[in-house]
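Much of what follows relies on a compact textual record of a protein's fold. Here is one such record, which you should read through line by line:
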Amino acid sequence: MKDIAILIPETAVIEAIADPGYVFRMVNEFLESSGKPALFNVKLVGLNKEVKLNKGLFTVHTDALTTEVKNTDLIFLPAISGDMATAIRLNEALIPWVVAQYHQGAELASLCSGAFLLASTGLLNGKKCSTHWMHATEFRAMFPEVTMVDGSILTEEHRIYSSGGANSYWNLLLYLVEKYTDRDTAILASKFFAIDIDRESQAAFMMFKGQKDHDDEAIRKAQEFIEGNYQDKISVDQLASMFALGRRSFERRFRKATNNTVVEYTQRVKIEAAKRSFESSRKNITEVMFDVGYTDTKAFRDVFKKITGLTPIEYRNKYNKNMVAA
């Protein structure tokens, strides 16, 4: 029997508490229906017997207090909502228990923004992590010693797992089901819950808004110039000259401020414009390619797929149902 503790922090997202329990209890039923013994003992664990969530709209009754759980095999840290720094502060009393359980051999799994709570333990330092794409910049600022993996559905490193944003955590749940049981059981679970079992990226769902939460005014103006002129060919030398900076200094400051090279940033702006066009217009692939400043079909396709995880045709067909494949 594998003991699973679903942590109940203050400001937790109720679905990220309910869904892991639902999945592993259903897997127990799948196993029993095939003549095998149930494998998972699932408990809701918290600091108090009752935890009120969503401004008191929901009350979660825990099965056990952290002081009562001496050993467990897997801990889920569910998504948390609201201001992340405040949420961490409200739940700091949970941290010593999580750390102690990890050092005793427990595995840890964060769901979506639960990565912030996981990172606050210090156990992620020097390791990779994923979270909701909207929180990536904030996460990097708060936890610079953790390697944020953009667009990843899940990560696994040294008994620590993390998942991407929103419903992406279902893929981590299925991954763990397969790890603890077998592929057939995981496929059965994926069919029961109607989840694509092997989706590996949240890139197709990401919206690039430009990283402007920094204090470098020259770089911010450079970003705005790129975003306003993405159809044109813009060189690093041109931008550096515009802001009276040496190329090397400009590139260093740009990467420090945006976490992208100038080329990467320009590509992301172009591809975001292409995505919007594919979603809302009836233009074909070539027209969109020219509109965003590309003249090489292969280069456009390669960059588009690298950033979104889909080819231009796949993306258009997925998000614009009025179109047929060109």
In short: Residues 289 and 296 are 8 Å apart (CA to CA). The two ends are 53 Å apart (CA to CA). The mean pLDDT is 87.
